[in-house]
Specification:
By secondary structure, the protein is an alpha+beta fold. The chain folds into two domains: 8-180, no CATH class; 183-219, no CATH class. It has helices at 114-125, 175-180, 183-190, 200-213, and strands at residues 8-13, 18-20, 31-38, 50-53, 76-78, 86-89, 95-99, 103-109, 130-144, 150-165. The strands form two sheets. Strands 1, 4, 5, 6, 9 and 10 form a six-stranded mixed sheet that branches. Strands 2-3-8-7 form a four-stranded antiparallel sheet, with helices on one face. A hairpin with a 3-residue loop joins strand 7 (95-99) and strand 8. The two termini are 26 Å apart. One of its GO terms (molecular function) is peptidase activity. Keywords: Hydrolase, Protease, Viral release from host cell. InterPro entries: Peptidase_S78_dom, Prohead_protease.
Length: 228
């Protein structure tokens, strides 16, 4: 189903970033790389629900396996998602993004700035061990698995930025996403109350048709509750 007014979300990937020396003669303190997103991998608990990124969510790769930036426009790299710690941009060619069988991979030519040198030092020492990405989910599907986990599969998304992070502060959804996600309503939509024998088949068909053409109840804004 297609989502309108999608919020920007952040996720941390539990795969180590890699640091290597810059080419000889370069002013860059080094190149930082890793995976910003991994396909078909169930996330950690995001507050009672889980998530996976489908292959193709960021579009098909173009020549050389690069991300098709026509679908995402400008993507930036920032340490800790902080605009004061800018590391690279796709329009300058200092941030490069690729799609392969594993997921969405990035390479950053770290700048010869305080932020760039700090990131190089911390990555080389092993202090930066996680990568994070910010995205807007444009289309998603929902299911409940055999273990009773409610899973959102992101089918199409717009990428906004990638970031090395020292602390996995974004294992869960953003506060805005948590307020928009009504887990009980989502589960109810997948597990309707038992219908009379003659009505059951028609009810299932009707619910399936509604889900394919309307926004999922999990994404409908609800009144903000105290403490959320």
């Amino acid at each position: 189903m297609t989502m309108s007014g999608a919020v920007i979300e952040r996720r941390v990937i539990d795969r180590p970033v890699e640091f290597r020396a810059a080419p000889e003669g370069s002013s860059s303190p080094g190149i930082l790389g890793g995976y910003a997103a991994v396909f078909d991998q169930i996330s950690r608990d995001l507050g009672g629900w889980f998530e996976e990124i489908a292959p193709g969510a960021f579009g098909a790769p173009i020549e050389g396996g690069a991300l098709d930036l026509k679908l995402h426009t400008r993507v930036i790299a920032r340490a800790e998602h902080d605009s004061r710690l800018l590391l690279g941009t796709t329009n300058a060619g200092t941030l490069r993004l690729f799609i392969d069988d594993i997921g969405l991979r990035f390479e950053i030519d770290l700048p010869n700035t305080n932020a760039g040198r700090d990131v190089a030092e911390l990555a080389e020492r092993g202090d930066y061990v996680f990568a994070s990405f910010a995205f807007s989910a444009l289309e998603a599907d929902y299911r409940e698995d055999a273990d009773g986990r409610f899973i959102r599969t992101v089918l199409r998304a717009t990428l906004h930025d990638v970031a090395p992070v020292a602390d996995p502060a974004y294992w869960g959804a953003s506060a805005q996403m948590q307020r928009a996600f009504d887990l009980e309503a989502a589960r109810a939509s997948l597990s309707p109350a038992p219908a009379e024998p003659g009505e059951r088949e028609a009810t299932v068909r009707s619910a399936a048709a509604t889900m394919t053409r309307e926004t999922h109840p999990a994404l409908v804004n609800r009144p903000r509750k105290r403490g959320i």
